[in-house]
Amino acid sequence: MKKGVRIVNVARGGVIDEEALVRALDSGIVAQAALDVFTKEPPSPESKLVQHENVIVTPHLGASTVEAQVCFTNHHNSKLFIVSCSFLHLIPIFG
């Protein structure tokens, strides 16, 4: 991959080899990483990845936004509406 890439993983822990990511960050191949998921959750606070100066970590908050909760709630509680998550508008479905 191109030197200086930025990696974001909010999908699944284990998708990224965390030890390899630390090596890539240390060597400059990866400029920065943002991670919301880890192979082992929660990650150790002493983890080289968690402590790395070029890594931003969040505690698996991907579905903890207002938008995600509204979308989830409306999706599971009503078959009469589609939720436009980007704008939080309810679009009625007829039929």
Automatic annotation (TrEMBL):
Q: Mind listing the GO molecular function terms for this protein?
A: NAD binding; phosphoglycerate dehydrogenase activity
Looking at the UniProt entry, the stretches that span the membrane are none
Q: What Gene3D superfamilies does the record point to?
A: NAD(P)-binding Rossmann-like Domain
Q: Which InterPro entries does UniProt cross-reference here?
A: D-isomer_DH_CS, D-isomer_DH_NAD-bd, NAD(P)-bd_dom_sf
- Which keywords, in A-to-Z order, does the entry hold? Oxidoreductase
Q: Which Pfam families match?
A: 2-Hacid_dh_C
Which top-level group of life is the source organism from?
A: Eukaryota
Tell me which residues make up the D-isomer specific 2-hydroxyacid dehydrogenase NAD-binding domain: 1-62
Its recorded name reads D-isomer specific 2-hydroxyacid dehydrogenase NAD-binding domain-containing protein
